[in-house]
Design brief:
It is built from 15 helices and 3 strands. The protein has 335 residues and is mainly alpha-helical. It has 2 domains: 107 residues, Orthogonal Bundle (DNA polymerase, domain 1); 179 residues, hpI Integrase, Chain A. It has a 3-stranded antiparallel β-sheet with strand order 1-2-3. Helix 1 crosses helix 4, helix 3 packs antiparallel against helix 4 and helix 7 crosses helix 11. The radius of gyration is 27 Å and the shape is globular. The model has no long low-confidence stretch (mean pLDDT 88).
Length: 335
């Protein structure tokens, strides 16, 4: 019987006990960690010639990790943010490992000292209120599926939810009576209450009545489901949104339409409406208001209105007509 390597032992405990048990991380987060180490095994086998069954912790030092990160960028064409996410997953494992096995403390700390790579910060893309309204009008309200899609997109925008939060919505998470709200469960299994506005409440009530979701025994049903009565997946919701985005005549002038762009759009629209940024933070489920402040950097309309109110217009209204300047005309004629 072959001996199990220390890497196999600790990585198994890391996933089965620490991430899912001690940290209670979401399935999607654990999948992201899994992909990091799956690619690490591929790298060690293809580049360093070390098969998974022979991979030991002592063979993974700071140089190997740095080579792995560079390989992700050069060979797999990963972006810098993706590279940093992979490094964060590696940091988490070796932070866990240094407590489990203090004998390799020096090795762990050298890996923990690998810095994240700075990346150029791009501006957040969002839709205007007019563009958002046009997108939400695309589903065909004359069909049952079209009505579902209309309610789905309306809830996705109105709540500013992450797409996975919409996937996880159950019937019991929606309150139609005043005060109307939806209970969203986001990152870190943290729940928050998000108010629902009048039009969305009316659409939800009609949708739930048509689907008979208000009957007893349906409380644990997914709010949005497919033909098999299974909850819509992130890919399914993205496909639905893209289908209606492709119908827009102005698609070429718009940023790439994704579920997350509706979240960004909702945040910017709230900011433009004068909603306190602390309330926007709570609606979006951000841990820190500093994360929410990024929307203030892209809100050009609000900046323009503030400047118009704060400063007198001291620049000239228009340019003088050069045809009335006789000296200039004489100069040009004498050239």
């Amino acid at each position: 019987m072959k001996k199990v390597t220390d890497f196999a032992h600790y990585i198994t405990r890391f996933f089965s006990e620490y991430l899912s048990g001690t940290r209670n991380l979401s399935k999607n987060t654990i999948k992201a960690y899994r992909d990091t180490y799956r690619l690490l095994l591929v790298f060690c086998k293809e580049v360093n010639g070390i098969t998974p069954e022979k991979l030991a912790i002592k063979k993974i030092d700071d140089k190997v990790v740095t080579q792995y990160l560079d390989w992700l960028q050069k060979e797999r064409k990963c972006t810098i943010p993706t590279r940093n996410q992979r490094l964060a997953a590696i940091h988490t494992f070796f932070r866990y490992l240094q407590i489990q096995n203090p004998e390799i403390l020096f090795l762990c700390q050298r890996i923990l000292q690998i810095p994240f790579k700075r990346a150029p910060r791009s501006l957040i893309q969002h839709l205007t209120p007019e563009q958002t309204s046009l997108l939400l009008e695309q589903p065909d309200a004359q069909t049952k599926r079209g009505r579902r899609d209309m309610v789905l997109l309306s809830v996705l925008y109105d709540t500013g939810a992450r797409v996975q939060e919409i996937c996880n919505l159950r019937v019991r998470d929606v309150r139609l009576e005043s005060p109307s709200m939806a209970t969203l469960t986001g990152k870190g299994c943290k729940s928050r209450y998000v108010p629902l506005l009048g039009n969305t409440v009316n659409l939800l009530r009609k949708y739930m009545e048509e689907r008979k979701l208000l009957e007893n025994g349906k409380q644990d049903m997914p709010l949005f489901y497919n033909q098999r009565c299974a909850a819509l997946t992130r890919g399914g919701i993205t496909h639905i949104l893209q289908k209606y985005a492709n119908k827009l005549e102005c698609l070429n002038t718009l940023p790439k339409i994704t579920p997350h762009i509706l979240r960004h759009s909702k945040a910017v629209h709230l900011l433009q409406a004068g909603v306190n940024i602390v309330y926007i933070r709570d609606i979006l489920g951000h841990v820190s208001v500093k994360t929410t402040e990024m929307y203030a950097r892209v809100d050009m309309e609000t900046k323009r209105k503030v400047l118009e109110k704060a400063y007198a217009d001291i620049t000239p209204e228009d340019m003088p007509d050069w045809n009335q300047d006789e000296d200039l005309l004489d100069f040009l004629q004498n050239l």
